[in-house]
Amino acid sequence: MFHRQSCQPKLTAHSQTKVLPLQGARSAVIAVEGKADDVLRKLTRNSCERVGDLGGLTMLTRPVMTLLSGIVVIAVLRAVPAVGAVKLPAVIGDNMVLQQQQLVPIWGWDDPDMMVTVEMGEVKETAQADKDGKWMVMLPAMSAGGPHLVTIVGSNTISLKNVCVGEVWLCGGQSNMEWTVHDSKGANEEIAAAHHPRIRHIKIPHTTAEKPQSDVKSSGWQICTPESAGKFTAVGYYFARHLQRELKVPVGLIGSNWGGTPIEPWIPANGFTKVPALSEFADNIDKYPVRRGKAIYHKSPLALYNGMINPLTPYALKGVLWYQGESNLGDGMLYHEKMKALIIGWRTAWNRADMPFYFVQLAPYRYKGDPLALPGIWEAQTATLSMQHTGMAVTVDLSDIRPKNKQDVGKRLALWPLAKNYGRTDLVYSGPLYKSMQVENNKVRITFDHVGGGLISRDGKPLSYFAVAGKDQKFATASADIDDDTIVVGADSVSEPVAVRFAWDQEATPNLSNKAGLPASPFRTDEW
User: Fold this and answer.
1) Between vectors from CA 339 to CA 338 and to CA 345, what angle results, nearest 5°?
2) Of the N and C termini of the chain, which has fewer Cβ atoms inside 10 Å?
3) What is the DSSP track for 285-317?
4) Residue 105 phi/psi, 5° resolution?
């Protein structure tokens, strides 16, 4: 039974009247879309009564002088988009790239209980919308290729054109990831040569949210051309270009990044709760994100995950590229814990514990404040390699807060998945990483992983930025010599060395590399 109460209907859509059947009624039912007062004025001059709501419709009754007594007038309230139409999230659209060799979710919204069919070539899958209108189908694992047409049939039909299947990477972080091709080294030449129709990019606009969102606005997937490439993430573009040349498959980039942001707003709630060292955040998780005035503060925990990452789930990805850390200077090894929370949280969101996560170690730069704050981030980033399915591109040779040479950054990132995920076992994919030390009289022998066929001085000069210390913890500049795949370090003023540091200064640009030309990462053997 509907409760009766007097009402004054207020609607704003254009008038459109349809006669619909109402089960159990003795008269016709008129569905009115429009200004109720205008429509009803044509029907009657008598007062109306509200008898209830049904499926977003306000039901009104009144005697009608020119129609049969007992007619029910239904005024459609349009506070939400019209029902009876398939709606897709922004990340699904024309020109998209779908991940090859994985189950591929395609989802959206329609009327509750509506059967929705998705068809792509010989693949055809059907799902029923739930009570909230959400539906999802899983396309089977497919081989790389395209272009394809994807047809979605529900209350209406949507055709998605020029869809490819290949490799999809999410590009996250702050300004170094958001930095565009237009602003990178050799931009004019690079943009003019950017004829790569099988590379696609979608930019997620800066969006904060109080709660995890199911969608986010976007201008959609863009095909790489000289007209569009200038706005692509530069690191992502050069990564994709190298990957596409090697694999000969389409590559899709999802650019979800925001300059000047720390890591905390990108971490989901369950990321904080799963890392004991971050209990200060986890214990207060219901208080985040915070507001400044009426707006959600974009640097607050959860703010950007809710608005810019959760809406992308569960879009099938190969993995994640991450370039961030400048806004977390001073965190030291706590940044490692935050990286753990980020990686765990995103892998959980995509339900893929083995999802590759490759990141960039920050380049040298003269920051204000503690000159050891940047080495502290380097150490935390290197420590994150202890997590499975991670990798790090070292950039100590590129010296700047935002190196314009994004070509080398992108290529170095691409080496990791080529070796780890795409079967290129012959590749040297990392610069030398500290492994162990052994004291030999008044010298220290350092061993490395990833020597890449041998160690070299990149510029032919003596190795630079090594220091040793004795038990007094006073470091002295040291000489360093290559001995096969090791480095022997010593200083005349330190007769009994116990610790070695390499490039442990924010402006250090050391020349140690492997023969593949990949620079060694800064390290220290002490914890002083």
Assistant:
1) 90
2) N
3) GGG-S-EETTEEPTTSTTHHIIIIIGGGTT---
4) -75, 135
User: Are the beta carbons of 226 and 191 closer than 8 angstroms?
Assistant: yes
What backbone phi and psi angles, to 5 degrees, belong to 384? -65, -15
Contact 399, 505 (CB under 8 A): no
Q: Say which residue the tokens 């007038």 belong to.
A: 73
Q: Which residue type sits at 389?
A: H
Q: What are the percentages of helix, strand and coil residues in the chain, rounded to 5?
A: 20, 30, 45
What is the bridge-based pairing of β-strands 291-292 and 221-224? Answer: unpaired
Contact (Cβ atoms closer than 8 angstroms) between residue 443 and residue 452: no
Backbone angles phi, psi at 207, to 5 degrees: -145, 125
Of 103, 164, 92, nearest in space to 139 by CA: 103
Between CA 164 and CA 169 the distance in angstroms is: 14
Q: What is the mean pLDDT of the chain?
A: 88
**All structural domains of the chain:** 5-76 (no CATH), 222-420 (3.40.50.1110), 433-524 (no CATH)
Structure confidence by residue, pLDDT tens digits, 408-426: 999 999 999 999 999 999 9
DSSP assignment of 259-286 = TT--SGGGS-HHHHHT-GGGHHHHTTGG
> Quick count: other Cβ atoms within 10 Å of Cβ 333?
13
User: What is the token pair recorded at 147?
Assistant: 């272009």
Please, which pLDDT band fits residue 399 given cuts at 50, 70 and 90? confident
Length of the chain: 528
Q: What does DSSP assign to residue 71? A: P
What's the pLDDT tens digit per position in 223-265?
Answer: 999 999 999 999 999 999 999 999 999 999 999 999 999 999 9
Closest C-alpha to 104, from 85, 84, 129, 121? 121
Tokens 């010296």 identify what position? 399
User: What's 364's DSSP letter?
Assistant: P
Question: Which of 15-24, 292-301, 343-352, 485-494 shows the lowest mean pLDDT across its residues?
Answer: 15-24
How many helices (H) and strands (E) in the chain?
A: 10, 31
- Give the containing element (helix H, strand E) for 432: none
DSSP 237: H
